[in-house]
Every structure is written in structure tokens, then in C-alpha cells.
Amino acid sequence: MKSIIIVFLALVLGGCTYSMQIPETSETPKLMPRGSTYTDLISLPQPRGKILVSVYDFRDQTGQYKPQPNSNFSTAVPQGGTSLLTTALIDSQWFLPLEREGLQNLLTERKIIRAAQKKDKVVNNHGADLSSLSSANIVIEGGIVAYDSNIVTGGAGAKYLGIGGSGQYRTDQVTVNLRAVDVRTGQVLLSVTTTKTISSHEIGFGAFRFVDYKELLEVEMGYSQNEPVNIAVMSAIDAAVIHLIVKGMKRGMWSPGDPNAMQNPIIARYSEASIDIL
pTM higher than 0.90 for the full model? Predict the structure, then answer.
């Protein structure tokens, strides 16, 4: 009897493990997944003319670290916000970002070219003339301004005759802010703040049974899934860029190529978005 129970539990455990679809470590690299707002971002109407913008810094302003015991002083949100924002601006096809985060590296490379030109050496891949750097019309400021953990938590479980299961869920929230600043006057023209929830859940199962006198057989298994924080941050940035474009269109700061673009379903949906009052 004892051997039959052991074999049965082994088969159940093996079947559940197989059904969990544990990812293979040999999976090939791929482009970073994007949230649903990415589809809206790349489907916006084309602008009348692209806007030159610069992004100097878009950093984590939360000061949050991952909760114990898995912290290891790792931050709760990605530190590459500038790169994520630059990608979103390019994908929108409304802006032409100018390199500012690595500006010192760019200036060093230009010094090397000018030094060669002073010695009457023509740099093959640049020619005899080196044009000046482009200047931006708008500076995009902001950052990841908040990360709230355990906004909503809950769970349920039940056990009967040594067999039971349980489930837990948790919701976090990340908030980003974008500001469009006029280079000529320093005036903050637009400010947009967006949030994105991050969902996590865990399911567990356990069973125990006395197979013989003073012999206890216990089986446990579980499964958890956490939404990647970087994808949530990217989705919040994508939404902020869309809202920035739509607000600028409504205020006449920039114009789409199509005069009827305000009737576009995406533009109309984001134009009608309202702020929730708690």
C-alpha cells in the first residue's frame, strides 16, 4: 500500500511539474516585449513635422528597493529610464531625440575629428567639414516618481484530510512623469503623469499522509508569476508620450499632417481620458 501511494504521488507531482511549462534556459534572445499601449504609440497619425527634443536625464526618483529577503540592495524599478524614454519618443515618430545622456562621449569623438582636420588630414568617413550639433526646441524632463507596493493584496486557501491548496495575489503601482520645457523661455509647456499597475500571483498545493507508523509523506508544489517591472515602466512611459502628443495637439503646440487627425480613434480616446478622483 505504501509503495502504491508513493508511486501515485510521484506521478501526480511529475504531471503537475510538466503542466507548469517551466521555461527552457536555452531560449534565444529576442526584442523586449511591450504592453498594449505600444500599439497605440506606433499607430498615431503622422505629424506635420518632427520635433527636435533632448532628454538629459530620466531617472528613478523613488529611492525604493526590492523588499526583503530578496533585496540585496537592488532597486525596485529599472535605472535605464532615459533609454526607455528615448525609445518611446522614436517609436512615436513625432520626435527626433538628440543625444544628451552621452554628450561628453560625442564631444570627445568630435574633438578627435577636428584635431585630424587641423593637421590637414581629411577623415574619410566625415570629409573635410564637420557640421555643428543640432539644438533642441523642447527638453523632455521628468522621471519615475513613485513605486507603491502592496496596493491590493489577498488570498484564499483550504485544506481537507491533509490535502489543500492556496492562492495569493498582490498589486503594485509605478508612476512616471513627463514635462515638456520650452528651450527659449524655460517655461514648462506640458506636464503628464501616468501610472501602471504591476500584478503578481502565486498558487500552491500541498498534501500529507501517514503511510506507515511514524512515517509521514508530504508533498508540496507551487507556481508564481510576476509581471516584469521594466515592461510596466515602459508601458507607463508609452502612455505618457501619447498623452503629451495629444495635449500638445489640443493646445496648438504641434500639428498632425492630417487636418482630421483629432477624429482618429486613438487620439479621441486619449483626449477624453480623465483623472480618477479618489
Answer: no
Looking at the domain assignment, is residue 15 inside a domain?
no
Q: Calculate ∠ Cα 212-213-215, nearest 5°.
A: 65
Query: End-to-end alpha-carbon separation of the chain, Å?
Result: 60
Q: Indicate whether 229 belongs to any domain.
A: yes
**pLDDT tens per residue across span 211-241:** 676 777 777 778 777 788 889 999 999 999 9
Q: What is d(CA 44, CA 264) in angstroms, rounded to the nearest whole number?
A: 8
Which three-class secondary structure state does DSSP give residue 274?
A: coil
Among residues 34, 39, 40, which one has the least CA distance to residue 242? 40
Cβ neighbour number for residue 219 with a 10 Å cutoff: 15
Which residues, other chains included, contact 44 with Cβ-Cβ below 8 Å and sequence gap of 6+?
Answer: 92, 93, 94, 242, 245, 264, 266, 267
Domain extent at residue 251: 49-270
